[in-house]
Amino acid sequence: MATQSNLFEQIALDLQVHGLSIQSLDLNEPALLALTERLTILSPQDFRKAGIGRQEEHNKNEYIRRDKIHWLDNKNPQEALFLSYMQDLQSYLNRKLFLGLFSYECHFARYEPGAFYKKHLDAFKGETNRVLSTVLYLNPFWQSQDGGELAVYDPHNPDNILHIVAPSYGTLVTFLSDEFPHEVLRAKKTRHSIAGWFRVNTSVGGNIDPPQ
Ligand SMILES: O=C(O)CCC(=O)C(=O)O
Ligand SMILES: [Fe+2]
Question: Which residue windows are transmembrane per the record (predicted)?
Answer without folding.
Answer: none
